[in-house]
Specification:
14 helices, three-stranded antiparallel sheet, about 400 residues, 3 strands, single chain, mainly alpha
Length: about 400
């Protein structure tokens, strides 16, 4: 009789961590969904439970099918995806669903749910950068041939995401910089890119101050930073409720579904789900969840280091870093170590697009680690072969 490893290839530890995070997500969202039911958003807690199980199942399905495809195919997917996602980001800015002055979701005909196009942009950008870095090792010191093909898509996508979602734009830019650093892009180009980004952001803020319509969410960004840095914040309701929810948990937690603070905690099922988990599971949740993402990052790095392909190495590194950085930003916000950003906790927070795309990205890592690297080594380019696996 065949066991599960016959069907689930790649890094087995990644599979185990994802299944554990799936269980944590279902339990946490089911508990936190009582808030939505209480506020009269429609449906009962069981409705949201079934919805979460559905998207977890879709995410796992995406992960499974993605890991069955030879990973080298995703290099082409990244290149075509970047070309496709740029007009989608433009459409989102002008035609997307507007919530709190932020157009982040786009309804695509035929899909039963809206998609957050910045999630797609993150995936395609990581794959594109991985492909370019692997193929351009011999010319990375050349500004035109090596650096610009990396920098232009990164800057363009960051600018298109920025008006509606500053934190995601900053995350994309940071991941791109780290990947270019790992890939061996000269320091002078990286410093120039960072300097240009800072100057461009300052100019954009000054322009938005004079013309508020340019960046409708500028006031929100400023308020969040001021609340985080001030000794007497004007609006600290979210953070105060998160602290109260955490303090209720103590060492052992109040138990699944017993954290009464979730009814006062905004976004207890999404942005602040970590605070609610600590309230219900105590130190086990406070330590266990960060540890799970550390393991996930480590295994992605291991898969990348073992890959015989430059593209596989950079893709695994980029995917692992993008998931881990977003996760730790979310958790840092919940414990007031970082300003409020609106970043969900990958795979754990309630959400459809994010879960499915996270499943796809992890499926790509599993594809890299499932053994295709050996068969791919004969087709690896000379430039890719020059990549040193850190």
């Amino acid at each position: 009789m065949k066991n599960w490893s016959t069907y689930l290839k790649g890094d087995s530890i990644i599979w185990v961590v994802v299944f554990l995070l799936s269980l944590a997500s279902i339990l946490a969202v089911y508990s936190a969904a009582g808030t939505l039911a209480y506020q009269g958003e429609g449906g009962t807690a069981e409705t949201y439970l079934l919805d979460r199980i559905k998207f977890i199942a879709l995410g796992l399905a995406a992960m499974y099918f993605a890991h069955k495809i030879p990973f080298r195919v995703y290099g082409l997917v990244g290149t075509l995806g970047v070309v496709m996602v740029i007009p989608l980001l433009v459409l989102t800015l002008f035609m997307g669903s507007n919530i709190n002055d932020a157009s982040r979701w786009l309804r695509i005909p035929g899909l039963p749910f809206s998609i957050q196009t910045s999630d797609l942009a993150k995936l395609f950008l990581v794959l594109y950068l991985a492909k370019r870095l692997a193929a351009s090792q011999a010319v990375l010191t050349d500004f035109v041939k090596g650096f610009l093909p990396l920098a232009i898509p990164l800057v363009l996508i960051t600018l298109l995401v920025l008006p509606a979602n500053f934190s995601t734009a900053a995350l994309l830019f940071l991941i791109g910089l780290i990947m270019m650093f790992i890939g061996g892009v000269p320091w002078k180009y990286l410093f120039g890119l960072v300097g240009s980004g800072v100057l461009g952001l300052v100019f954009l803020i000054l322009l938005a101050t004079a013309m508020p319509g340019v960046l409708p969410r500028l006031s929100t960004w400023k308020a969040r930073i001021e609340n985080f840095t001030s000794d007497e914040p004007k609006d600290a309701y979210q953070i105060e409720q998160a602290k109260m929810s955490i303090s209720m948990g103590g060492i052992f937690g109040q138990g699944p579904g017993n954290n009464a603070g979730k009814y006062r905690l905004p976004q207890s099922y999404s942005d602040f789900i970590f605070a609610m988990i600590i309230g219900e599971y105590g130190m086990f949740g406070a330590i266990g969840l960060p540890f799970a993402f550390i393991i996930l990052l480590y295994r992605c790095l291991v898969v990348g280091a073992r890959s015989q392909s430059g593209f596989g190495t950079f893709a695994a590194y980029g995917i692992g870093l993008s998931i881990a950085i977003q996760a730790f930003i979310n958790m840092a916000v919940a414990v007031n170590l970082f300003p409020v950003t609106g970043q969900p906790l990958p795979w754990v927070s309630m959400g459809g697009t994010s879960t499915i795309i996270t499943g796809l990205t992890l499926g790509i890592v599993l594809s890299i680690g499932r053994g295709d690297t050996q068969s791919d080594s004969s087709t690896t380019t000379a430039e890719e072969g020059q990549v040193a696996h850190a």
